[in-house]
Amino acid sequence: MAHGHGHGHGHGHSHETTDIDWAAMGDKLERYARIAAPMYGEVAAWLRGWVPEPGLVADVGAGPGAVAFLLADAFPGARIVAADPEGPLLERARARAERDGVADRFEAVRAELPDDVGQVPPADLMWLGKSLHHVGDQGAALAALAQRLAPGGAIALLEGGLNARSLPRDIGFGKPGLQSRLEAVDEEWFAGMRASLPGAKDVVEDWPALLGAAGLRHVATRSFLLDVPAPLPREVRTHLVDELARRREMHEELLGADELATIDRLLDPSDPGGLLLRPDAFLLLAQTVHVAVKDREQG
Fold it and tell me: If you average pLDDT over every residue of the chain, what do you get?
């Protein structure tokens, strides 16, 4: 049931920083990037159609840089900048750059949108992987980032797609359709999260239109599939368990007793019907990327 939330946090993370276990968060974000690496590879290959040889790639809202390092592999001639507001995650990214031998072309900068957009260096390619929806005024943030984009450069905005599925509709216990009900609760939580952000503005989530309003020219939208069929590797099962446990904790007050009992069975490592043991668990999701370019005459 990982990534059930359509606006979810495959790459982004919460700005509520109290009592966060940064090591655990970094582990989870890096694990998901490993699982989704084939999908991100397809995204990068597609992006080369608009920015074949970027000099500088900026991952805005990078967390520990998990996707930034995938972009470093995809664009070996580029400098990579990972920008994020959380210092512990950036330290993790710097350490990995040293281990991976790419420290000479990797930089981690502390920046929170929209106030610190000036910390993001002018880039030929900007990647925003589900980080924009953590900003109250998304349109203003996009406009500010567009100013930091080199003429001829592109912003790749990952927002939307299809919610992940990992189990059949009827799992053999509890009321069928648990994942659909969790998605409804996710949407209720997301609306509250958006409303609580500083300077929050309601906008139609027409991402091409928002990119256009930022002064860019929308050139393409494409969705990419992550399809990991049953039987799942252990790492993917662990990811599913962690994501479901996170959602249970977030939504406990919104879920009924029967639903919580079903979730607890799915989380039980010794239950044959749980996510760690059942043979029919899978991971299927679609992520949508919108690309917009800054015309050269704008420079």
Answer: 93
pTM over cut 0.90? yes
DSSP string, 195-229: HHSTT-------HHHHHHHTT-EEEEEEEEEEEEP
- Using alpha carbons, select from 60, 285, 23, 64 the residue that is nearest to residue 157: 60
pLDDT of residue 17: 45
In this prediction, residues 283-292 reach a mean pLDDT of 98
- CB of 254 closer than 8 Å to CB of 185: yes
Please check whether residue 223 is in contact with residue 233, taking contact to mean a CB–CB distance below 8 angstroms: no
> Does 210 or 298 have the greater pLDDT score?
210
Lookup: tokens for 212: 């256009």
The one-letter code for the residue type at 62 is A
Residue 64, H or E segment: none
**Tens digit of pLDDT for each residue in 99-135?**
999 999 999 999 998 888 889 999 999 999 999 999 9
Report how far residue 228's alpha carbon sits from residue 37's, in angstroms, rounded to the nearest whole number: 12
% of the chain surpassing 90 pLDDT: 89
For 248, other C-beta atoms within 10 Å of its C-beta total: 18
Q: Could you tell me the domains of the chain?
A: 22-166+200-230+286-298 (3.40.50.150)
CA distance 62 to 60: 5
Contact present, 6 and 179 (Cβ < 8 Å): no
- As a whole number of angstroms, the distance between CA 131 and CA 118 comes to 17
For residue 20, CA distances in Å to 42, 88, 170 come to 32, 10, 35
